[in-house]
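Batch manifest, entry 17 of 40.
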Amino acid sequence: MGLRPLYGLTNREIRMTIVRKAYPPPEDSYLCADLLLRCLKILGLISFCIVTITPGNVRADGSDIQLPELIEELYQNNQELLSMEERARALRAEAPFAGSLSDPRVGVALLNLPTDSFEFDQEAMTQKQLFVAQKFPWFGTLDLSQQVAELKALEFETLVQGEWLKKATELARAWYELGLVEQSLELNKKLKTVITQILRMTEIRYATGMGIQQDILAGQVQMSELIDEEVNLRSKEQAIRGRLGSLLNRESFFTDKGPELVPEIDYSLDLEEYKKVALQHNRQIIAKKVGIDRARLEVELADKNYMPDFDLRLSYGQREPNPVTGVDRADFFSAGVTMTVPLWQRTRQDAKKEGAEKRLKAAEKSLTGISRTLPHKIESLLAEIEGAKENFALYRDVLFVQASHLAESSLAAYSVGKVEFATMLGARVRLLRIELKTQKYKYQIHLKLADLAEVIGTSPATLEGI
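Output type: structure tokens
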């Protein structure tokens, strides 16, 4: 039985070709090879143009989607971040409470009421009393307490801003990853088209006696591997789209296309400049500095605890007239001050101050640590970006050109029987995969730029225009 091809001509079509040709002359085989050569060259040219010229970020409906638009949608819709923002506002709104006096206390009392008769006019000292009391902390305590509360709110607000940048970076990375997966799927489709064309020509050659069955089997194996690769890419694409939809809190599935072609960015990276910017604008750095200021005020507030608090009490006592003479008795006015005494100083005031001082030291050490590690992180990111730039240039300017020459020469040699089918097929597949690797390095630059933006304290979209 003849071989039943998976792609292209059927056995019947091959047999009909053989009957019509009736032992075709040798030039017919060279005609098939020439046709194969021309088809593959055209496919290669179309493939290169699509990868390198197609404008990016075009939706199916013709409209464009850009990273800044997605980040703005993130800011508007992400409920987790909006919840954190509301908590920050709550802390800010509660700050005046810490700096205000406690509510005054108002009360009534009966003084010196005789128990033998319970008459209000029997004894001269019997009173119906009305009083008001107010507690006053030591001077400056309330002001310090409010400052501490405001700095606590500011610290949390800064951390919320850092969380915004973190989510924006996650969004940018997912968006770029989606674009790269879509590029991979497009390349997978082109590879399958190329291999399908090669298989058709190979089947014709096999039918005319110029090819071998192993060449068809090799092409079919390569096609099966591409189908498996497509399944994995589709699964990865769905996972990325799910992550994007989760970040944006969309009710519907994320269906927008990723960046089909990210732009080449011509820029120079200044390590020292980025270090300065990061130390000034990194949200963790800012939060640590605010935390140090708050810890210092807490130490001052702990010192205030050694001083007494005052409790002022004013009262008015009303007396009934003398029951014998009928003469009105004078009412009483009373005032008093109560103050705290630091009798349990060792377990209260001393312990409170020691804890505040240790928190201050911890905050200072934390700032020192992040200030020292942040420049190294920036340096590492810049090195990765530079490496990706060099690899991108190498693939674009050298490897792609070399792979193109190799694919063309292998195809020409195969057409005259000087190289094997596997060599020709491998050269053609390698050319298209080098095109994808070129795009991968370009996407890698943008992915690392997004990480760099988070470190220096800015939105990933801002570094697109470097």
